[in-house]
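Today's session is about reading a structure prediction critically. Students often jump straight to the picture, but the first step is always the sequence itself: look for stretches that repeat, for charged clusters, for runs of hydrophobic residues. Only then move on to the predicted structure, which in these notes is written as discrete structure tokens rather than atom positions. Here is the chain we will use throughout the hour.
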Amino acid sequence: MSTSQSGNYGRRKHYIPLESNPDVFTELIHTLGVSSSLAFQDVYSLDDPDLLSLVPRPVLGLILIFPAMEDYDKVLEDDKKTRQAYTGKGEDEPVIWFEQTIGNACGLYALLHCICNGPAKQYLKPDSTMSNLLKKCVPLDPTGRALVLEGSEEVEYAHTHAGKSGHTVAPDPTDDVGHHYVAFVTSSMQTGEVYEMDGMKQGPLKTDVTLEEGEDLLGEAGQKLVKNFIEREQGRSIGFSLMALVKTD
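Below is the predicted structure for this chain, in token form.
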């Protein structure tokens, strides 16, 4: 995997990559101040009704993990050629997006995009690390947000602990890793619009999916969106996994 994909090239700071483990992600969001009513859970299939039925509903966010080999650089370059860099800020944004400026932290950015957007945002505890960080970041453009996130000792400490708590040996923060994380979230404006959130791209990407009232991200439209993403990337790589942010009570 190239250094630009892993987020290492020219980065001021690097984090231990998170293991794609829902327990690790759940521990991290709780440490950051998300209510214990939310948790991440593996989605084992998008085709098997029995396996889909194991996922509690509604699903508030999705994180897709996929092998990002060197061809993913071309995806990022094409994005730069076709879209201007996002400069949105303030309460009127349909979504809150963070540019990835911390090396090997794509899991963190996907997690942040899930808990800071759509209905999940309502589960941030007052005066928690995440709610305080969001108050600082919302009025700022992506550059300002990046500096706030890089400077957060609380986030760095929580991430470091989570990075070491997986089932596998934690890699070095500057190692090249072979996977990338993207999130799928709904607009905070309650319009049902679904966005692809990748901190390595130019900004949030509004998809052509709008959820109907009562439909969640793991409904038919959301499943199709994720399947299309996987089919698009399968020509370059194999080995995908999916986690859902769900209510546990």
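Discussion point for the tutorial: The chain has a mean pLDDT of 90.
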